[in-house]
Amino acid sequence: MTHLHPGAIEASSDSAHLLLTTHGPEETIGLGQRIGQTIRSNLFIALSGDLGAGKTTFTKGLAAGLGLPVTVTSPTFTLVNEYAQGKGPTARRLVHVDVYRLEGGGPAELDGIGYGDLLDDLDASPGYGLLVLVVEWADRLGALLPEERLDVESISDEDEPDVRRFSLRAWGEAATGLLQALAE
Amino acid sequence: MTHILAIETSCDETAAAVVVDGRRVLSNRVASQIEMHRRFGGVFPEVASRQHVLAIQTVIREALDEAGVARVADLDAIAVTHGPGLAGSLLVGVNAAKGLAFASGLPLIPVNHLEGHVYSNWADMPNNPGATDEFPVLVLIVSGGHTELVLMSGHGEYRLLGRTLDDAAGEAFDKVARLLELGYPGGPAIQKAAEGVALDRFSLPRPLLHNNDHRFNFSYSGLKTAVLNLTRQLEREGIDPKAPETAAAIGAEFQAAAVEVLVEKTADAAQEYGARQVCICGGVSANRALRVSAQERFAGLGIPLHIPAFALCTDNAAMIGAAAYFRQQPSGLSAYHNLGVDVHASLPLT
Q1: Is B253 among the domain residues?
Q2: What is the DSSP letter of B350?
Q3: ipTM computed for the complex
């Protein structure tokens, strides 16, 4: 359903990089959906990009790819939205965080939205099912980002309003494996 | 007469009120953190809960004094918002309410914040009597976090007809104000900039208007992106979109687009479901353009419209006291002696 044109995957020992272009919200949803379908283990996704770059749209696709029949809405006001389905090893949980309004917020602010607990949950055994933690405006987290993660940066094109260039960078084994599966 | 002390701490406001029989507001105190957020340009969950802790005893005391209530035990019940909202903030209100209920032996009524907004319409205020009990009532809840069309067939009976598919309307106001550097919070900033500005310079889309697949749903993400694209287009033409006159013209057109979709979809739903009253509530219902446009539209349709007084549009505790009264009515207060009330960061109305 989507027309993605993946560039060649650039892999090095500690990270891998993939560039993809989408033309319109449907394709951005399609990209999120493909990633959601490909995720096999708990994953932290660090989303960045300007206002209107398609961060929430991408997350709509992720939820669909994870098989969650939900309407993903912006977490800007609520700070954290959580979608979950099932129990035990087959459970799927998508936690959608937005740190846009947490300007100047340090670790204490993030604890106020349960950030530390969520990172702990990412390390939980597969017996608890699959957890995907998506953080919008993650570039503001700096050193508070976990080492193993998938960075997704969306860049809108000033001359082509519908075009979004997605830069996907994997840190760690799980995310790198995911990118390799996507590029195939 | 049922006197209820209500407490609300779900987000930025620490609020307490005393409400009689769900309608008569004896007191309505709010300690707002908005000044602090304006200074820092954002929300601090940890700071927010600490501010609630600092403010709550004073706010409750002031609400009781203003209502002429000498002792908590003279009341009939305590009500508190238990979700949706920031967990840390909600906990401050819920714990204070539990303490008061435990010490006084009064019933404790947990209230959904969204149901509170719905019932802001039933509270009587000077020059603004509450809604009547003529059902069905069509309610538009529109705020920073919500944009929902709800049909009420009776008190406490809700059917969700539609909602935003992405951003809430109030959030779009905030983000567009930020794009145009008009200030925070975005709603009042855009309203002020747009005052008296002609709508002939720019044209923005009316998302999902006349869309049969999403007849009662909303989408504000695309409108925000349209504003972004417009500002980039202007920059390419060498025009500064943030220059006061241009920003005001874009802000005015954005406000007109946002309001038109809200009013038209509400009018469409009101006719489709034979609503005998329409209520518009939540923070964005304080917007003057929305109030004026809705008044004209529903006067034309001959459907009574209710929009709360300004003091009840933004978060407050009087609406929680009103909602609590109607919530307990079917069973009576004796069903609310369980103090095991939890907070729920996500809590849907239906």
Answers
A1: yes
A2: -
A3: 0.81
Nearest C-alpha neighbor of A23 from the set A3, A42, A48, A41: A3
List the one residue out of A76, A69, A66, A9 whose CA is nearest residue A42.
Answer: A66
Q: Residue B104 phi/psi, 5° resolution?
A: -100, -15
Which residues from B are below 8 Å from A113, CB to CB? 45, 86
Q: Are residues B33 and B180 in the same domain?
A: no
Measuring CA to CA, how many Å separate B46 from each of A1, A68, A81, A115?
43, 31, 18, 12
Q: What is the CATH number of the domain that holds B50?
A: 3.30.420.40
Intervals of chain A under pLDDT 70: 1-15, 103-109
Q: What is the pLDDT of residues B120-141, one digit of tens each?
A: 999 999 889 999 999 999 999 9
- Could you tell me if residue B349 is inside a domain? no
Query: Which residues of chain A does B163 touch, with a Cβ-Cβ cutoff of 8 Å?
Result: 71, 73
Q: What is the pLDDT of residue B279?
A: 98
Q: Indicate the average pLDDT of chain B.
A: 94
Distance from the A49 Cα atom to the nearest Cα atom in chain B, whole angstroms: 13
- Greater confidence, B170 or A117? B170
Residue of A68, A76, A156, A159 to mutate, interface with B, max B Cβ within 10 Å: A76
